[in-house]
Design brief:
The protein is mainly alpha-helical and 481 residues long. The chain has helices at residues 5-13, 18-37, 46-50, 54-57, 59-82, 84-104, 108-119, 124-135, 141-169, 174-193, 207-230, 235-257, 265-268, 271-299, 312-319, 321-340, 342-363, 367-393, 401-429, 442-464, and strands at 432-434, 437-439. Helices cover 76% and strands 1% of the residues.
Length: 481
C-alpha cells in the first residue's frame, strides 16, 4: 500500500531542523539573485575586454534575463513532478558550469554561454518557497517564505559592492570564480541539509508546452530588452514581437486542451493569482528601475550637471541599504502577514515604493535623498515580495506550488526586463554628448522616477482588487488567510 500524504509529511518532519533548511534555501536564493548584478561593475568595459561592439556585449546581460524568465516556470513544473530538491541541485550545477565557462573565457561567445547557464539558477527561489510549503507546518512558515522571496532583491543589492570591490582590485574573471565557489557551497549544503522531496505530482512532462513557452517568451523578451537599440518599428522588432504574441496565444490554447499541461492556466486565471502576477510586473518594474537609474546618477561626474561623482564602490554602498532592509524585514513580514493578511502586506509594499519615488522627485537627487529612497524601496520590496508567494500559494493546490511560484517569478522578470528597456530608452533619448560621452539629462532622470512610480501605483491598484480571503476550498492550513 503506497504511503498516504500524512505518512509523507511525517517523514518530512523527521528531517533536519527547519531553521537550517530555511538558511540553506535563503543562501541559494541570494546566490541566484547575485547573478543579476554580477557583471554590472564591468558592463561599460566589456567591449574593450571582449573585443566586441557595445551592442554585442549587451547580450552578456540580456541572455541572463532571458534564460531566467524562461526556466523559472519550467523548473517549477519539473520540481513538482520529479522532486524540488533534485531540480534545485540541477540548477546549481548549471550555475557552477556556467561560471567556470565564463571564468575561462576571453571571448564574447564563451561569456554569453556562461551567463546563460548562470541565469537558469534563478529558478531555485520559487522552488525553495515550494519546499518550505512542503516541509514547514508551524507558524514560522510565513517568515520563512518572506525570507526566501526577499532574496530576489537582497542578493543583487548586497552583491553589487562585492562585485565592485573584486573588479576594482583584481582580474574581472575572478567574479566568475567567486560565483562558481558560491554555487559549489550551495550545492553541498542543499545536498546535506534540504530533505529529499516526497510530495510529487505524477504525470508526464509537457515538452511541447515548454518549447512553446520558451519560443514565445524569447520573442517578447528580446523586443523588450533590445527594442531600443534595434528600433521599436524595425522589421526585426516587429517580427519578434508579433511572432512571440502569436506563439504564446497558440501555446495558451494548447495548454487548455491537454490533460497534463506545463502550467494549469485555469488555476493561473483565478482572480487572486492573476492579479498578484500582474502586480508582480509593477513591483519588478519599480525595483529594477532603481537598479538602472540610481547607480548612473551616483557615478556620473558632477560636471555633467546630472551626476554626483561617486566611485563605483561608493555608489554601490549607497544603494546597498535596500537589500539590508529587505533582509531585516523578512521575519517581520511573515508575522505581519499572519496578522493582517498578505493582501494588506502587498498594499503596504506598493505604497512604500510610491513614496520612494515621490520622495526623490520632491526632495532632489542628492546622495542622502537617494539613500533614503533606497531604504523605502527596500521596505516596499521586502513587504511586496514576501506577500506575493503567500497570495499565490493560498490559492493553488499543493500539486501546482512549484509551477505557480515559477510563473510568478516569470512575471517579476517581465517587470525587471521592461524596466531595463524603458529606463534605457528614456535616458538615451534625453542624452547629450559631452566629451564624447552620452550623458543623460536631469529631466530624463526625473522622467524615470515618474515612470517607476507609475509602475508602483499600478501594482497598488491591482493589489486593492485582490480578494482579502481565498475561497474556502483553496486555502492552505499553514498560510495566512
Amino acid at each position: 500500500m503506497p504511503p498516504s500524504d500524512e505518512d509523507k509529511r511525517k517523514r518530512l518532519t523527521r528531517m533536519p531542523r527547519h531553521g537550517a533548511i530555511v538558511a540553506v534555501l535563503a543562501l541559494t536564493g541570494l546566490a541566484s539573485s547575485f547573478m543579476f548584478t554580477l557583471v554590472v561593475p564591468i558592463q561599460a568595459e566589456l567591449p574593450e575586454l571582449l573585443g566586441a561592439s557595445r551592442e554585442d556585449t549587451a547580450w552578456v546581460v540580456t541572455v541572463t534575463l532571458l534564460v531566467a524568465a524562461i526556466t523559472t516556470p519550467i523548473a517549477g513544473r519539473l520540481g513538482d513532478m520529479y522532486g524540488k530538491r533534485r531540480i534545485v541541485l540541477v540548477l546549481l550545477v548549471l550555475l557552477i558550469i556556467g561560471s567556470v565557462i565564463a571564468a575561462f573565457s576571453t571571448s564574447l561567445i564563451g561569456v554569453i554561454i556562461g551567463r546563460a547557464l548562470q541565469g537558469a539558477v534563478v529558478g531555485v527561489v520559487p522552488l525553495g518557497i515550494a519546499i518550505l510549503r512542503d516541509v514547514l507546518h508551524t507558524s514560522g512558515v510565513n517568515s520563512a517564505i518572506a525570507l526566501i522571496s526577499a532574496t530576489l532583491g537582497v542578493g543583487g543589492a548586497l552583491g553589487l559592492p562585492i562585485s565592485a570591490f573584486i573588479t576594482e582590485f583584481a582580474d574581472w574573471h575572478i567574479i566568475f570564480w567567486v560565483a562558481a565557489g558560491i554555487g559549489a557551497v550551495c550545492f553541498g549544503l542543499v545536498l546535506w541539509i534540504v530533505p529529499v522531496s516526497v510530495l510529487r505530482t505524477p504525470g508526464s512532462f509537457d515538452f511541447v508546452g515548454a518549447a512553446g513557452l520558451a519560443v514565445g517568451l524569447t520573442g517578447i523578451l528580446l523586443v523588450i530588452s533590445r527594442g531600443n537599440e534595434w528600433g521599436w518599428l524595425s522589421p526585426a522588432t516587429l517580427a519578434l514581437g508579433l511572432g512571440g504574441i502569436v506563439v504564446l496565444l497558440i501555446w495558451g490554447w494548447y495548454e487548455l486542451q491537454i490533460a497534463e499541461p506545463l502550467l494549469d492556466l485555469r488555476v493561473a486565471a483565478r482572480r487572486p493569482v492573476l492579479l498578484t502576477n500582474f502586480a508582480s510586473i509593477g513591483m519588478g518594474f519599480a525595483l529594477f528601475a532603481s537598479n538602472v537609474v540610481f547607480p548612473q546618477i551616483l557615478e556620473l561626474p558632477v560636471e555633467t550637471g546630472a551626476g554626483l561623482g561617486l566611485s563605483l564602490i561608493a555608489a554601490s554602498l549607497v544603494v546597498m541599504p535596500a537589500g539590508l532592509v529587505m533582509m531585516v524585514l523578512s521575519p517581520v513580514s511573515g508575522r505581519l502577514a499572519g496578522v493582517i493578511g498578505p493582501r494588506a502586506l502587498l498594499i503596504m509594499g506598493a505604497v512604500a515604493l510610491v513614496a520612494a519615488y515621490a520622495f526623490v522627485l520632491i526632495a532632489g537627487n542628492g546622495v542622502w535623498q537617494i539613500f533614503v529612497s533606497n531604504i523605502l524601496i527596500g521596505i516596499g520590496i521586502g513587504f511586496g515580495f514576501a506577500a506575493m508567494p503567500m497570495l499565490i500559494m493560498r490559492s493553488v493546490p499543493q500539486s501546482e506550488t512549484g509551477a505557480s511560484n515559477g510563473l510568478n517569478a516569470l512575471f517579476r522578470s517581465l517587470g525587471t526586463s521592461t524596466a531595463a528597456a524603458v529606463m534605457g530608452a528614456v535616458l538615451a533619448s534625453s542624452s547629450t554628448v559631452q566629451d564624447g560621452m552620452q550623458i543623460p539629462s536631469a529631466a530624463g532622470f526625473h522622467l524615470t522616477y515618474i515612470l517607476a512610480g507609475a509602475g508602483a501605483v499600478i501594482a497598488l491598484l491591482l493589489a486593492l482588487f485582490i480578494p482579502a480571503h481565498p475561497a474556502a476550498e483553496e486555502r492552505h492550513p499553514s498560510l495566512p488567510r
